C-alpha cells in the first residue's frame, strides 16, 4: 500500500507525466498545473508528504508558492523540492533561503529523482517522530505539574480542614474572573488563554504557606489576638518564599535546561493541533513564578493597606488582584467558627463596596458581570447545607 503522497506542480504536462512515471511505483501521486491549484491540494486532507515544485510557472511562480506554503502553519512542515532547468547558483540560493529543501534539475534522471525524494521523506519522518516525542514529553510535564500542585494544595486542606471545597471553588472563580477581565483592553494582552490556564492550575497554592502556621493559631476556635493575626499573615511570605526557592532550583537545574533546549529545537515544527501543548514556559518555572506571586500578593489591597508588603494599585501583581476577589468572596459565603455563611447577595455587595479600596476597580466591574456564575460555582462545590441555603438567598 502506498502510504506516502507526493504533489507534483508544473505547468508543463509532459514534465508531470515524466515524474509520475519515475515515482508511481512507490508513492501516491497528485498533480497541479497552477500555483493556486497546488496550494489548495497542499491544504487538503490527506496532505502531501513532499512537494515537487517547478520554479518558472505563469501566475504564481514556484518561489512565490514556496513562500506561501512556508508561511502557512498548515503546510509549513511539508518539504519542498524545486524542479527546474535553471542552473544559476543565485536561483538555487534564493530557493533554499525561502525554505526549499532540495533541487532537482531537468532533464530528469530517475535515480536522482527517487533518491532525493526518498531522502526528504525520511528526514520528514524523523522530524515528525521528534515532534511526537516533544508533544508527549510536554504532556507528561504538564501532568506532573498538575499532580504536584494538587498534592501540595491538599496538604493545605489537611492543615486547615475548615477550607473544605475552598481550593476547588477559588480555582474556578479565578478562571471565570480572568476570562471576563480578558475582554477589557487593559488586561487583554496579559490574560491570554495560556496565562489563564496557568492561573487556574497555580491558584490552589495560594494558601500553601499555612502549613507553617502553628496549630494553636490555625485551629484557634475564636478570634485571634493582634500578635496571633500577625503570625497568621506570615502564611503569605512562607508560601511565597517556599515557591521562590523551588523556582530558583528548577531554573538552575541542568536537567530542566536540557529539556528546555530540546523543546526549543523541535517545538517550532509541532503539528498545529498540538502546538498549544508545547509550552516552553511550563518547564522554565513560569507556573512556579505565578504561584509564588499569588502567594505573596493575594492579601494586598488596592489602597495599600494590605499585607505583607503594603503594595498598592498596579504594583500588586495582576494574579494577586484576581485571587483577592476570589478568596474574599469565598470567605464571605463560607461558614467559619467566628461567623455564619453570608448570602451571595451580601457577599456581592461587600465586594462592590470595596471597589477602589480593597479591590482593583476594573476587576470588580468584571466580577459584577459574572457574579451569578460565581454563585453557581459555589453551589457546585458547596461544603454544607447551611452554606447552600445561604447561596440560594
Question: Features of this protein?
Answer:
CheY-like_superfamily; Putative two-component system response regulator; alpha/beta; HD_GYP_dom; 393 residues; five-stranded parallel beta sheet; Cyclic_di-GMP/3'3'-cGAMP_PDE; 5 strands; Rossmann fold; 56% helix; elongated; phosphoprotein; Hypothetical protein af1432
The CATH homologous superfamily of the largest domain is named Hypothetical protein af1432
Tell me the structural class: alpha/beta
> What percent of residues are in strands?
5-15%
Number of strands: 5
Please write the CATH class name of the largest domain.
Mainly Alpha
Modified residues (4-aspartylphosphate): 54
Domain Response regulatory: 5-121
GO biological process, one term: phosphorelay signal transduction system
Domain HD-GYP: 141-383
Question: How does this model look, in words?
Answer:
The chain folds into two domains: 5-108, Response regulator (Rossmann fold, 3-Layer(aba) Sandwich), CATH 3.40.50; 128-391, Hypothetical protein af1432 (Orthogonal Bundle), CATH 1.10.3210. The protein has helices at residues 13-23, 35-43, 62-71, 89-97, 110-159, 166-181, 193-202, 215-218, 226-233, 235-252, 254-266, 286-297, 318-333, 344-353, 361-369, 371-380, 385-391; strands at residues 5-9, 28-32, 50-54, 80-84, 102-105. It is elongated and about 90 Å long. The chain starts with a strand and ends with a helix. It has 393 residues and is of the alpha/beta class. It contains 17 helices and five strands.
